[in-house]
Amino acid sequence: MAEEPIPALAMPPPLGPGLPLLSPAAQPCFDVDVFLCSRTVGQDVHIIVKELRAYKHTIQENLVQVINEKYRDFVSLLSMLQREAGDIHSMRDKDGLQDVQASLGSLRDTLGRVEADMVSLVQEEERIIREKQYLHMLLDMERMVQKLSSLLGLGSEAEPVEPPTYRGVMSQVAQCDFDDPDADECIPEESHGLTHAQRMANAKQFYAALQHLLASIDKDKASTYLVQLEPVLKDIYHRLLHDTMRLYDQSLHEPVEESCHTLSLALDLSLELGEVAVNAILDRISAQHIEPHVKSGFETQGPPHLPLPWDPAEAERVEALTHLAWDKPVVPPATLQLRTTYDALLHQTRSLSHLFQVTEKVGGDMLDVFNDLWWQRVATSLEKVCGSQLFFVGKADEFCSNYYLTQAFLRELKALAPTPRAAEAFERHAKTIALQRRWAFSAFFQLRARDIITSLEQGLETSGQDEHFYHAAFSHFMHAFTAPWYMTRHFAALSAREWRLSLHVLSRYRTWLDAHTWSESHGETTARAEDSTLSDDELQELHRAMGLLVDIRVFEDRVRCVQRDYILPKLLGDTDRAHALCDSLNEAMDVSLHAYDAMQPRITQFVLNKLSKKCAEPLRHVRASHAQYRTRLPTDAPSAFVEQILRPLHQVWGSDEAPIRQLPTELVTSWMNHILDGTLARYSSAVDTITRNLESLRRLKRGTLGLAADDAATADQAVYLQLATDIEALAAHIEAWADKTGLPLTLSSPAWKALREAARRT
After folding, report:
1. CA-based angle 407:413:416, to the nearest 5?
2. Which of 44, 84, 119, 629 could form a disulfide with 722 if both were Cys (CB 3.0 to 4.6 A apart)?
3. Which residues contact 16 (CB under 8 A, 6 or more apart)?
4. Cα(192)–Cα(169) distance, rounded to whole angstroms?
C-alpha cells in the first residue's frame, strides 16, 4: 500500500487589521500567550519578532496618516471636552441618574413578563384552534361515514344523497373552514332517484374524500376513535368492492358507449379501493374478455389482413439483375394456417380496442390490459399451440415464412396499442423479447450455407454451357453469390454472415479460374500436318477460352449490379454509417473481382499461339512453288494454300453466337493484327528462301553445258509471277476478312511491307 503524502505545513496568516486576534471587535482583551501560540506554527521567535516590528511600523504610518487627515476633528473634540468637563463631573455625582436607571430596569422586567404571557396565550390559542380543526375533521369524517353508509344502504335510516361533482369533491373538502359553524354546507346535500352507476359515482367521490381525511388525521391521537370506526370502514370497503364488481358486470350488457362509461367508473373505483380491488377487476376482465377472445382467435377465422410473407416483385427484380431463373416461393400450408390465426387474433384485438382505450385512459401502466393481460395470454397460447412448428428450423422455407409473417403480426399488433406508451411497453414486454429470441438464426444459416455451397460444388463438377454463359459454372457462381440474400434465405440479423458467405463464393470463383489451363497440342493428331483447318476439339477449346473472358466480364458486371441494387439496401438498411460501410464493401468487392485483367494475358497467349500456328501451316506450300510452276505456264489463279491461311480465323469467327464476337473490339483487333503479322513474317521469310534458292540454281545452271539461259530465266519468271499473284490474293482475302468482321485491319504493318518488298526483289 502506497504511503499517503505528507501534507504541506499551513503557515499562519500575515499580520493585519483583519486578523481576529488583533481586532478589538473580535478580541476585546488582547491575550499575548494566545497570540504567540498562533504564530509559532512553522515559524521561530526571530521571524515572529520581525513580523511584529514590521506591523508596528505599518500601524505607526497609518496612525500618522489618520492624524494628518483628521487633525481638525481631533482639535475640535478636545476643545469640546474641555468645555463640558464640569457638567459631566456634576452629572456623575447626582443621585437622579441612578434612580432613572433603576426605573428603566423595573419597567423592562415588567414588559418581559407581559410579553411572555402574551406568547403563552397565543400558543394556547393556536393549540385550541388546532384542536378545534381536528375535532371538525373527526366530525366531518363521521358525517362522511354516515353519508357513505346511507348511500351504500348500510344504515337503517339511509336515504340517497347527492355528492358534489366528480372533479370537485377534493377541492370542496380542502376549502372547508373548520372554524365555521356552517361548515356542514361544504358537504353536498342528498337527492333521490339515482341509478346504480350514479350512486357508485357519488360513493366514489365520498370515499375519496374520506380517504383524504383519514390520511390527514393523527393516527396515534385518534386511535380510540379509529378502532371504533374500523368495523364500519370495513363494511364500507367490502360493499364498495362488491358494488364495483356489480358495476363491471353491468358494463358487459350495455351498449359500447354506455359500457365504456360504466367500465371507466368501475376501474376508477378499483384504483381508489387499492390493490385487492384492482386484482379482482383484472381477474374479471381476464375471464370475461381476454380468455374468450383469445380462444376465439385460435378457433375461428378473421378477415384477411396480413400480407403473404413473400413479395413476388422481389423475384422479378432478382431475375432482372442476375438473368437467372429463380424459384418462386410457395407459402407452406402451415404458414397459411398461421396467417389465418394471426388475422383472427388481430380481428379480436380490434374488437377489444374500446376496452384497451378505457383501461389505458383510467390507469395507464397500472391497468395495462393490452400488454399484461391480452398480449401475455396471446403469446402464451402461441407458444403452446404453434411453438413446435413455428420455430422449427428443419423446414427452412417454412421457418423463414413463419418469421416474416410473425414480424408482420407483431407490427400490426403494436399499431393497435391504445397509446404510444402501451406500444413502447409492448416492445419491452418479456413475451415480445422471448418470442424474438426463439428464432434459431444460427442453425438456419448453417443449413442454408451448407446447401448453397454443396449446390455450387456439384455444379462446378459439370462442364458445358447454358443459355446464360459459355461456361455453366458462372451461372452457379451467380446463383450462389445472390442466394444468401434471396427472400427465402435472408434475415436482417444474418446480414454480416450472409455477406461473408457471398465473399466466400467470390473467393471460390477466383480459385476456380486459377485452375484453368489449356493444352496447345490438343487436337493435332486428328488433323493433317499441312492442313490449317481447326479440328472440332481445337475449335471448341478456343471457344471455351474466349468464352471464359466473355463470361468473366458479364459475370463481374452482374455481380456488381446485384451488390449495388440488391445486397447493399438489405445489408446497410437505414444505418447512420451507410456511406462509410458502403465504401468498405465496395473495396472488398474490388479485391474479390478484377479477374478479367488476370486471365486475359493467359488466354491471349493461348489463342495467339494456337491460331498463329494454324494460320502458318499452309505456308509450307510456298517453298515448293518454284518446282511446281517452273514446269508449267503461269496462270492468274492463286495457289490453293492462300485460301487456307485465313481458314482458322473464319472458323473462330463462326456464327453470331461465337464468343470472339462478344469480346471488346480492341482486344480482337490486337489479336488479329498479331496473328496476321506473324503469318506475313513467315510468308516473307519463305519468299526470301525461294529467291535465294532460285538465284543459286540459276548460277549453277549457267555453268552447265547444253542448258539455255533463256529457258531458265523463263521458268524463274513463272515462279515470280505466281508468288506475286498469291500475295495479291492474300491481300484481297485479308481485306475481305476485315470487311466481314468489321475490324479495323490495314495492310500497312511492317510485316506486310516486308512481304511486298520480298516479292519485289523477285
Report:
1. 150
2. 629
3. 22, 55
4. 19
Q: What is the Cα–Cα distance from 759 to 246, expressed in whole angstroms?
A: 123
This prediction's pTM:
0.66
Tell me, what's the pLDDT at 529? 45
- Residues sharing a CB contact under 8 Å with residue 158, sequence separation 6 or more, in sequence order: 149, 150, 151, 152
Matching residue, cell 506475286? 724
Of 311, 350, 351, the residue nearest 331 (C-alpha): 311
Which burial class, exposed, middle or buried, applies to 308 when counting CB atoms under 10 A from its CB (0-12, 13-18, 19+)? Answer: middle
> Do the Cβ atoms of 680 and 755 come closer than 8 Å?
yes
User: Does the pLDDT at position 421 exceed 90?
Assistant: yes
pLDDT digits (tens, 9 = 90+) for 75-128: 787 777 777 777 666 666 555 667 777 878 888 888 888 888 888 888 888 888
CA–CA dist 337, 444 (Å, integer): 22
- Per mean pLDDT, which range of 90-104, 438-452, 479-493 is the poorest? 90-104
Counting residues of the chain whose pLDDT is more than 70, the rounded percentage is 83
With a cut of 50, say whether residue 524 has pLDDT above it. no
For the chain, how are helix, strand and coil distributed in percent, rounded to 5?
A: 75, 0, 25
Q: What is residue 308's three-state secondary structure?
A: coil
Give per-residue pLDDT as tens, 2-28: 455 555 556 677 777 777 777 777 777
| Half-sphere exposure in the Cβ direction for 306 (13 Å, CA) | 31
CB-based contact 40:34 (threshold 8 Å): no
CATH 3.30.70 for domain 611-761, yes or no, is: no
Q: What torsion, rounded to 10 degrees, do the Cα atoms 211, 212, 213, 214 define?
A: 50
User: Which residues, 6+ apart, have CB-to-CB distance to 489 below 8 Å?
Assistant: 396, 400, 448, 483, 498
Q: Which residue has the cell 473464319?
A: 650
| pLDDT score recorded for residue 350 | 92
Q: How far apart are CA 249 and CA 255, in angstroms?
A: 13
pLDDT of residue 126: 87
pLDDT tens digits for range 131-163: 888 788 778 878 878 887 877 777 644 343 333
Whole-number Å distance between alpha carbons of 328 and 751: 59
Contact residues for 530 (Cβ-Cβ < 8 A; gap 6+): 617, 618, 620, 621
In this structure, how many other beta carbons lie within 10 angstroms of the beta carbon of residue 582?
A: 14
